[in-house]
Amino acid sequence: MLKKNSASLLKTFVFAGAAAFAFALPKSASADNLSDALIGAYKSSGLLEQNRALLRVQDESVAAAVAGLRPIINWTITASNRNSDTSASATTTTDQLQTGLALSLLLYDGGATRLKQLAAQQTVLATRQSLLNVEQQVLFGAVQAYVNVLLQQETVRLQGNNLRLLQEELKASQDRFEVGEVTRTDVALAQSRLASARATLIQSRGDLLAAQASYVEAVGHPIGATAGQPPLPKRVASLQSAENIAVRNHPSLLGQQHAVKAADYSVDAARKGLGPSVTLSADISATANLSGGLDSDTSGGSITYSQPIYAGGGLASALRSSMALRDVERGKLITAQRTVAQDVAEAYVTLEAATASLVSSNESVRAAQVAFDGIREEATLGARTTLDVLQAEQDLLNALTARVQARASQATAAYSLLQSQGLLTAEHLGLAVEIYDPTLYYNLVKDAPAQVSRQSRDLDRVLRALGKN
């Protein structure tokens, strides 16, 4: 009898100690947090670098349009040798060296080139918004990677605690079997559950390794100790408020609005291209006769008026094509408006559901804990079987796992809502990084500086600072 009571007392202490260990979460002294992940992603993203370069390409299109309104000057040097035969069979050789300057300047084209410049400027603004949209995708990828690592770490910790608890349960079952309190079947059940827990733990560790690899891909460096769940961004008061914010801020919507304006300017430019143009041409040259003849200097100028009469239908086709492209951009704007509204609504509802799920999960954990404690005590009195204890322990593990998943879902949904509103940017989040300034390069090239100008030298310094020169 004393041996039986000792075994029961041992089991009670084992369960109490294992349960206390299972729910005590250690804290690390220094750890990576979500801000670290976002900063790493912003600094190291190749996708951001790619789209910043694409923006610089569009910046140069403005410079190209500006250059079309400026004079074009070409310098030429020509060395020539000419042989001529006369009727007297005499051969005359003439060696000449000629140099000259030729100038061409568009005086009037109905404003077509100016409209092309305005279209290029709108395209630049649209591309800037596309860059912000990519920035949001990169930062949200970092959020997902960080939260997934946390989820897998919590899962591994729960599975490890569960394994230790089952090991103690198996030992307690074996002790009780020795004193005749349970049968060999109870021991076998505990052994089976322990083997399953080992397999689950191995799978969870594999999922954690995969999550850590995804983190490196998204952030650019391995993750160290984590600081726990990230703080959630401030929530909007209602779905309507979220939609209003998205209409004002979402880069895909703002970018498409600029794309429509660019298409409008392109249509106007194509229409102006059907009209007349006036071009000024001037040239000056000097010829040195190396064969002993007379040297000569020439100069001249002309103004040319040109009006397309018939171009095989090509100009009209270009106008119709630009009008069709404008309709394409307008259709994309309608799609973007609906997509943004749908994304906001979906993200808002998902966050609401995740929050409610977390509340429910907390209640499930509380109830499962109470049930587990009660069944454990009843088992020490012989009123419950080993199977009852194992099932209660599994229910508690499931509840804890569901709570961890709900917490991760809530964090992801919160930042997804921020992204759907167009607010998941380094500037809005206040990240401790040097924010990329899209106007810096544009301001240096928008006036199409010559290669030998002071502005061009400033541009070279900017490119060197970017590591692109």
Question: Describe the biggest sheet?
Answer: 4 strands, antiparallel
Helix percent band? 55-70%
End-to-end Cα distance, whole Å, is 87 Å
**CATH top level label of the largest domain:** Mainly Alpha
The domain tally reads 2
Structural class: alpha+beta
Summarize the structure.
68% of the residues lie in helices and 12% in strands.
Description:
The protein has 469 residues and is of the alpha+beta class. The protein folds into two domains: 2-25 and 38-79 and 96-436, Up-down Bundle (Outer membrane efflux proteins (OEP)); 437-469, no CATH class. The chain is 68% helix and 12% strand. Strand 3 and strand 4 (296-306) form a beta hairpin. Helix 1 packs antiparallel against helix 4 (112-178), helix 6 (239-249) packs antiparallel against helix 8 (314-380) and helix 7 (251-272) runs antiparallel to helix 8. The radius of gyration is 38 Å and the shape is elongated.
Supply the key terms.
single chain, 4 strands, disordered N terminus, Outer membrane efflux proteins (OEP), alpha+beta, elongated, 2 domains, four-stranded antiparallel β-sheet
Helix/strand layout:
Layout: H1 2-22, H2 34-44, H3 46-67, E1 72-85, E2 91-108, H4 112-178, H5 184-219, H6 239-249, H7 251-272, E3 277-289, E4 296-306, H8 314-380, H9 386-420, H10 426-429, H11 438-445, H12 454-466
Antiparallel strand pairs: 1-2, 2-3, 3-4
